[in-house]
User: Fold these one by one.
Assistant:
Number 1:
Amino acid sequence: MELIVLGAAPAYTDRAGSAASSYLLRAGDGPGRSGGAALLLDLGQGAFANLASTLEPSSLTAVLVSHLHPDHFIDLVPLRHYLKWEFDPPRRVRVLAPAGLADRLDALDGQFGFAAAALDVEGLAVGIHSFGPFDVTVRRVSHTDESYAFRVSMAVPDARRQQAAMGATSRTVGNQAGAAGPESEAAGAAGPESEAAGAAGPESEAAGPAGPESEAAGPAGLVYSGDCSRVEDLVPLIRPGDTLLSEASFGAGPVAPGAQHLTSADAARAASTGRAARLLLTHMLSGRSRTDILAAAQAAFAGPVQLLTEGDRFEI
């Protein structure tokens, strides 16, 4: 599959031409994978135009929203308008998100049913799910009261999927003792873009630091952090050879008090512990030194590290 970066910015940036978090995964054969399945992870401000110039948006297999901060979902509004007004009859796209997304979109327009006019909004659930040719593992992470990270890979036969699920379960059970999040996270999850949502630690499946699953559990994939504040929430998703796409909002650090985010060194430790093949860093706030960001990550992870920008493409 191919990863296309549609948006790599955080809630605010001084980088001209940027768009907020949005990452497109395309599967299929041939140049540009025309006609193949397409899965979208987040759709922040400014990203719809990049999506629409890359593929016809109604062809999306699904959109997965990691959490309900606007820089991760707000361009669902132009997607909704496009689907409703560009076609007769309107077309629809499936959207999976934390609870309350449809209500927030409706409130933006002051109209009940605004989202439902073109978006089939469903709740996200922890576990392994299939979207066309993609297998997606969904896992709770610490940021807002309901935030998720994702692992996406090409679908595998049921027997191998069951093996992967059993491997994840056995690792969780073995690490339950380390699963408790810090008490301070219960006070509230305020990122720089947040109105201070309550920040619960991830569910009980979010065990403490664990080694990666067996290489036999499935093909290499992409692990996307969403927004996250704890390395140990990400490690159980990573398998050897995966690409880790991680936020590093505060660059080389430190993270501002009360902000539930990672530094580039945090992301690098997750990549190293999980034996990822590559680390892609994104979602960095204005004024952070790219040199320092890279240096901090490279000190903790021996593999290749890259800072993302819109238009970047990678084979996964």
Number 2:
Amino acid sequence: MMKCILFILITVSLTFSTVPSCHKKETNNSSSHLSYYFDNREIDYINENNININEIIPYVEFESFNVYNFYEYENLRKEKNYTYIQTLNRINYPNFYKKYVSVKPAIFTNSFLTLVNKGHYVDSSFIPNDIIALKNTNITYIKRENEIMQANKTILENYSLLEQAAKKENFNLYVFSAYRSFDKQRYIYYDINNCNDETVARPGFSEHQLGLSLDISTLEYGLTNYLKDSEEYNWLIKNAHKYGFILRYPQGKEEYTGYAYEPWHFRYVGKDVASFIYENNLTLEEYIYDYLEIK
């Protein structure tokens, strides 16, 4: 909020300047303008490098803007015709798509856009809020001995509507997996899959731990790639976004997600974002890197 106010103050100050436009200098870097946002050291840097304040203004609203990277930002933005958010994210987070390199804590936490992948993790103690047992819903799921399948309450409410719509088309869907604890993921990664990074997330790096993902399939195909050839899958792909879900690991997007194609793995992100991702053929990673400021 403060940055937005500062951005407005700088803009208004420049717009209503009493200096006639024909007498304005190439740069307008008076401390009265710059001090709204920058400290003395940053102002000195701006003046010493003859940076035009008008070129800085579009960046001011972003918390991640670092004035010392200004020329690097501008060179990339102009070269690639990037938006300001794309520019900031790429300069500030060049390893965003790297797998298990310079890993960072999950971002956009406490929201349905929380990112956990091979570059972002949650702690072993992390347990999501508002998870409930599927047995207390009308959702069809795979029942296993000594297992209580759970997921976020909101996503189950929306998935229930999705499942009802599917049934009207005579499609019978089942949830095979939902929330997964750190300890269970550790068991799957080390004991079941022998540390195979290609197919299984390391403990702490699985978004199943968020409680926002569901593995959805049919009894006939289960969690196999054969699902992609089914009518049920075709219906899911065309309709999941209407209920806030996206196919999390699409085919041909491995360089962004870090995972091989999984036709069964769906993630809840909310209806508006899901529809945007679907309509623009994006992954969650691409959406965040191109449209959200990473702070």
Number 3:
Amino acid sequence: MIARASAAKAEIVVDNVDVVPLDGQIKRMFDDAHLATLETLTLSAFIGSNVLFQSEHNYGYMKPIFERRFIEEHGLRFDESLPIGEDYLLLASALAKGGRCAVEPFAGYTYYIRSGSISRVLKLHQVDAMLAADAEFLQNHRLDADSMAAQARRHRSIEDARSFIILVDQIKARSLSGAVKTAWRNPAAVRHLRMPIAVRLRRLMAPFTAIRPFGPPPKTMSRTTPGNRPHKNKG
């Protein structure tokens, strides 16, 4: 990785990741050939990858190596007060400061997925912390047009995740009025429901659908993650 960074005259370098799921079958997180086509990882590409519900894995899972001089010169540090996303914020800040990030296509890090891991499921307070951290990031850095567009997509996805988590909790609590209000405020949250939860919602609505149809069942359900909540995406 150091050689890759030196050749690219980069202050930062990231590499690929091997994923070990519960069945033990090692999988490469990102296609080697695809990463080989990337000369560098740009800020807009990094932010755009860290959009929730977009994919199971994103560039936030990569483990960067930073040039110490660059980190110290710009006063960059992990924000240890954040419950989630501190690694995303550090790399995003380094890129926003003009850091050049080289990409090593081969995997040098192994990511284990364990049963019951709390790091795989987002909670409401963590989403709120992500929104606050992103707001501070925008205050501290001036982004180019492409990065701002990616940030807007990321922000919408986090807001969707927030509504989705609230909606799931309301369904579990059998709060019909709360679930309807949340769905009305943010219809995108409904699209992220997995079928088992959608069935619960229809059952919850059953006494009312007998009086007035609630509407046709959804034709498709977007993929979400285990635990009926979005994965953390390292951002």
